[in-house]
Amino acid sequence: MRIKNNSKSDQIFQELRLDILSGKIPGGTRLVETVLAKEKGVSRTPVREALQQLAKEELLYAIPRAGYIVQSLSESDIMDLFETRMAIEHVAGQKAINNITDAELTQLKNNLNISKAAIDKDSTIDMPNYDIEFHEIIYKATRSKYLYRICMMLSDYTLKFRQSIIIYPEVAQRALKDHNQIYQAFKKKSPEKLDKAINSHLKVVKKDILESLSKLRQESFL
């Protein structure tokens, strides 16, 4: 089943998807069709379609006669996610480096400048958006719609954990440093340096997420 663009189902799907990926609706939360329909002032049909689509994306899992549960990612799942991202982004990086335009390089540079200005002003609230934008420019430069979709999907899964920690100044600084190395590799047209920079960046992101998850679990027992 595919939800039509601009439909009420699609609107609810996008709202719930963003809330789940951003962590606003945490893992383990139960979502009930009738309750959501009442909250959003709509019939049960568009809510049902949205929940079914979210389940297909494995952001929810269905409990017979009880609704849906928001999926939680374990440390093992996170490790698997990043192993997959590294493999896919290696392919994406090598395609992008052969197709990236001067205009797209300028977009990357502008993104770095905006990110640095935000960090310098101690205003990192929008860093998740800058992070997404930086990588999306690269994904588009692959000139492959299928690779773009896969990369964006994996990026979205990462966002669930990434968004809550990249606003910290030290994490934002690391992201900016890594992004600059990726940009320099593109600018120099060096596939080897690009591959090294991307792998290094994803390892840092994985480490940040795992440490944050461990801290949250420890705090939950205090």
What's the tally of helices?
9
Order of helices and strands: HEHHEEHHHHHH
Largest sheet: 3 strands, antiparallel
Number of strand elements: 3
Q: Which band does the percent of strand residues land in? A: under 5%
Structural class: mainly alpha
Q: Mean pLDDT, rounded to whole units? A: 90
Percentage of residues assigned to helices: over 70%
- Neighbour order of strands in the largest sheet: 1-3-2
What would you say about this model in short?
The chain is 73% helix and 5% strand. It has helices at 8-22, 33-40, 44-56, 75-99, 102-120, 127-141, 145-162, 169-187, 191-220; strands spanning 30-31, 60-63, 67-70.
3D architecture notes:
The protein is globular, with a radius of gyration of 19 Å. The longest helix has 30 residues, at 191-220. The protein has 222 residues and is mostly helical. The model has no long low-confidence stretch (mean pLDDT 90). α4 packs across α7. It has helices spanning 8-22, 33-40, 44-56, 75-99, 102-120, 127-141, 145-162, 169-187, 191-220; strands spanning 30-31, 60-63, 67-70. The protein has 9 helices and 3 strands, in the order αβααββαααααα.
